[in-house]
Design a protein that fits this description.
The chain is mainly α and 417 residues long. The protein has 4 helices and no strands. Residues 259-293, 332-359 form a coiled coil.
């Protein structure tokens, strides 16, 4: 059995066939037009966005370059200011040490005299004036030293603030220079989470400028105060030096005058001691003579007494008061008078010798004190001359240990690139 033929489909008319063809062509042209418009818009967008991106990136680089220049300019200003602060700190330290040396260069007043040498003389008056002057000078100089120390602390604090600001500037420069060196081909670029956020603690450009301006202005003000302080200390040292020099000369003049008077008194005392010793020697010799004469007269009296006593033994009428008897009696009276006079003179001589010995001892003691006072005054004058020469020598600049900033490094080594 043969198969039945397929059922014929729905047939279209020729007009429908032409209409379909026209529709296909129209749709194709329409899609092509849309595609062409989209392509043109895409090309325009690409060109526009490429230009915008290139411009924005170039503008960002320009802004970064300007920012680097601004930060570098402020960094240089801070470096210059910090260098001046370091120099001012060294100058103030030197002035402070010179003031301390002037404070230490004081003269010790003359002391140690004893006995009648401890008198209220012009030297003592001048020394008292010198002590009072030195006391006032020490108070004034100590006040300057204390103020200089406080100002050094202020400069140290200012220097620390400048160092911190400089460190921030250098860190910011490193970051901005690193950002300036980045390109789209740099391997370290990547997408970040919320990069457009405003970090906490951010400042405005005005606040940023004002901060560095304040640090520099504060440093300049501290340096002006320090410079004025150094001028005041220099002027005070000069005035103090003039006053101390004037008083020193007055004291030394009084010392020399007193020394001259004491030398005269010593020479006079030595002459008196020498003459007294000579007189004592002669007196001792005369006492020996008086004693010898007294012994001789006593022997003569014994002889006369013995003769008179022996003659009393004459017998009978031979016990006569003859010329011999009268002569012996007269001789006894004369010898007794002579012996009494010699004893009195010997006692006077011995008393006089004893007084001269006592006075001689007092003169020797006084001479010892005068020599001690002269030696003391000579040592004082030598000491004063040494102190004067030392104070003149100390006017030369002294070597200082370099000051260090808050980071422990001298000058601006911290700022080295």
């Amino acid at each position: 059995m043969s198969a039945l033929p397929a059922k014929p489909g729905l047939r279209l008319s020729v007009s429908e066939w032409h209409s379909n063809n026209h529709q296909l062509s129209a749709t194709a042209e329409h899609e092509r037009l849309i595609s062409s418009a989209i392509r043109q818009d895409g090309r325009s967008l690409r060109n526009e966005t490429n230009c915008k991106t290139t411009w924005d990136e170039s503008d960002t680089r320009r802004r970064l370059s300007d920012r680097v220049w601004d930060v570098s300019r402020w960094k240089e200003a801070l470096e210059t200011c910090a260098q001046k602060v370091d120099e001012e700190m060294e100058a103030l330290t030197l002035s402070k040490e010179q003031t301390e040396q002037a404070l230490a260069a004081t003269v010790t007043p003359l002391e140690g005299r004893r006995g009648y040498e401890l008198v209220t003389d012009p030297v003592d008056e001048q020394l008292k004036k010198e002590v009072e002057l030195i006391g006032r000078v020490q108070q004034v100089l100590q006040q300057h030293i204390d103020k200089a120390f406080e100002q050094l602390c202020v400069l140290q604090e200012v220097r620390h603030q400048l160092t911190a600001d400089l460190q921030n500037k250098m860190d910011a420069l490193d970051i901005d220079m690193s950002c300036l060196s980045l390109t789209i081909k740099s391997p370290q670029i990547s997408l970040k989470t919320n990069p457009t956020r405003i970090p906490s603690g951010s400042s405005t450009p005005q606040e940023w400028v004002q901060f560095s301006q304040y640090n520099i202005a504060r440093a300049q003000e501290a340096m002006q105060v320090s410079q004025q302080m150094r001028e005041d200390m220099s002027l005070t040292r000069a005035q103090v030096g003039n006053e101390l020099e004037t008083q020193r000369r007055a004291t030394e003049f009084a010392l020399r005058k007193r020394n001259h008077h004491e030398e005269q008194a010593r020479d006079e005392l030595e002459w008196q001691i020498k003459n007294t010793e000579g007189e004592m020697t002669e007196m001792e010799s005369d006492i020996h003579g008086l004693d010898a004469d007294l012994q001789a007269k006593t022997a003569s009296l014994k002889l006369a007494h013995t003769r008179l006593e022996n003659r009393t033994n004459r017998p009978g009428m031979d016990l006569c008061r003859d010329e011999v008897q009268h002569g012996l009696v007269g001789e006894v009276h004369q010898l007794e008078t002579t012996i009494m006079a010699l004893k009195q003179k010997l006692s006077e001589a011995q008393n006089s010798l004893q007084k001269m010995k006592l006075h001689h001892a007092r003169m020797l003691q006084d001479l010892s004190r005068k020599q001690e006072a002269l030696s003391l005054e000579q040592r004082s004058m030598n000491t004063r001359s040494h102190l004067t020469s030392a104070s003149c020598t100390s006017k030369t600049p002294v070597l200082l240990v370099p000051l260090t900033n808050s980071s422990g490094r001298s000058n601006l080594q911290l700022l080295a690139q």
